[in-house]
Amino acid sequence: MDGYDAAKLFTQGVCYTYDDVIFHPGHIDFSVDEVSLATHLTKNIEIRVPLISSPMDTVTEADMAIGMAQLGGCGFIHYNCTLEEQVKQVKKVKAHKVGFVSNTVVLKPTDTISDLSQVRQVKGVDYAIITETGSLGSKLMGLVTARDADFVDDMQSALGTVMVPAKELVTADSKVNLKGAFDLLKQSKKGKLPVVDAHGNLVAFTTLEEVREAMSCPPPGEPSLSKDGRLLCGAAVGTREHDKERIKRLVEAGIDVVILDSSQGDSIYQIRMIEFIKREFPQIEVVAGNVVTASQAHRLIQAGADALRVGMGSGSICTTQEVCAVGRGQATAVYQVSRYASKFGVPVIADGGIQNSGHIVKALALGASTVMCGSVFSGTTEAPGDYLVAPDGVRVKRYRGMGSLDAMKKGSDTRYLGSDTRIKIAQGVSGTVKDKGSIRRLIPYLVHGARHGFQDLGARSLPHLKQLRDSGMMRLECRSGAAQKEGGVHDMHSYEKKLW
Asked: What is the per-residue pLDDT across 23-33, written as a single tens digit (0 to 9) for each?
């Protein structure tokens, strides 16, 4: 047979990245629509789409986690913030009604027009929902739009004095779906629709613009839900003694799975934290890591890890390999750790090095159950932060590695086991990325691209792909630099690369 099986290629003393390897096509006897990407995030959590967002402070907060779960994946909320802030983010995800606006602007009656003005500048919206406490879940009091506030001279006027009271608003019952919301808006000729429960408490909100945008996007499919029917949500935590209280509070907030966030997960601190969580909160799934070797994986699996996060120094903003001289090529790391972890039924999360749908296919083909993305989802609408205009006129968002000095100033150096050191050694960089639009369009493209990759490999599903890999029927080779260049766009005077 042409090429090599994975076992032979990855045992020659050379570590490879995704771009270094190429797979041979298999036999196709099924359509691309028959390909299933359903997988295990952890031993006991299944998701429909093998994509998860990284717990980075410029990638995943509540809006991203909501979007990921609604599209069949999962998001992990970062912990480079106070405990109260992280708990608030988790509660927002858990309280969200599937299919509706995730970044609803809610204020209280005593807030002022000045407060509304600030929100308009930061969020780019022209309205605010007014509730009794200024949060979702409390009694709906009214709605304020720019039209209501623009003709009031006193910026300190309370919103309660200018709002349209709740009794004059068109509202929807909490059981309404997106199509029902659109019909109500169309019938009432209104642009905004609060959704309330039987007690008049605000549970969701949508606008005509949001509904039209959602209906124009590819169908999201079935969302990722926890056993209680709420959106699936993960969160990152550290391995310090005070993180035990953080875990307790996150569990109370409804978290389903935690990631022990460390650039080098093979430590006594992580082993002790796994044992603590499994003893105190046995219902919570634990993702351990990061690791890149089978020996690292062995110790964490023995401690009770429900999944392993694989990757060290392969992220676009990570400089660990350059600064610390440790790590591994991501393709080799994913294959070697997955091969070992599969003996114990422990899923692997391929974390880092993903730039396109082809890399997602390669990660899954080499044994990963899911793929964690940071840079891919940075710059999207759902990513934290406000859009800026770069000097060249391009619309951008900030993106930084959790090992960058900027992130360390907020406390992320705990994941590098160095919060008490006087000299901070950067293992990442800070910068900006272009506006990528919403993940509601990006993820369906990535998923469909991955399905096409599976079809070309002759694999109907992840279990089928594992059979091909383990039997040696899946063949691959290493690519030369010239072959990599030839595999991309070349010999063009000019071209425009559109993803979809």
From this structure: 999 999 999 99
* Chain segment 313-322, per-residue pLDDT in tens: 877 777 777 7
Q: 3-class secondary structure for the chain? A: CCCECHHHHCCCCCCCCHHHEEECCCCCCCCHHHCCCCEECCCCCEECCCEEECCCCCCCCHHHHHHHHHCCCEEEECCCCCHHHHHHHHHHHHHCCCCCCCCCCEECCCCEHHHHHHHHHHHCCCEEEEECCCCCCCEEEEEEEHHHHCCCCCCCCEHHHCCEEHHHCCCEECCCCHHHHHHHHHHHCCCEEEEECCCCEEEEEEEHHHHHHHHHCCCCCCCCECCCCCECCEEEECCCCCHHHHHHHHHHHCCCEEEECCCCCCCHHHHHHHHHHHHHCCCCEEEEEEECCHHHHHHHHHHCCCEEEECCCCCCCECHHHHHCCCCCHHHHHHHHHHHHHHHCCCEEEECCCCCHHHHHHHHHCCCCEEEECCCCCCECCCCCCCEECCCCCEEEEEECCCCHHHHCCCHHHHHCCCCCCCCCCCECEEEEECCECHHHHHHHHHHHHHHHHHHHCCCCHHHHHHHHHHCCCCEEECCHHHHHHCCCCCCCCCCCCCC
List 348's β-bridge partners, or say none: 308
Q: In the block, which residue shows the tokens 């992130």?
A: 407
pLDDT for 87 equals 96
**Tokens linked to 248:** 């307790």
Please identify which residue in the block is written with the tokens 């219902």: 283
Answer yes or no: is pLDDT of 461 > 70.
yes
Asked if pLDDT for residue 357 goes beyond 90, the answer is yes
Digit-coded pLDDT (tens) for 410-430: 555 555 555 555 555 556 667
CB atoms within 10 A of CB 495: 7
What was the pLDDT predicted at 427? 61
pLDDT tens column, 129-143: 999 998 888 899 999
Active site residue ranges: 318, 415
pLDDT for the residue 417: 55
Name the strands in the sheet holding 140-145, side by side, starting at the edge strand that comes first in the sequence. 106-107, 127-131, 140-145, 164-165
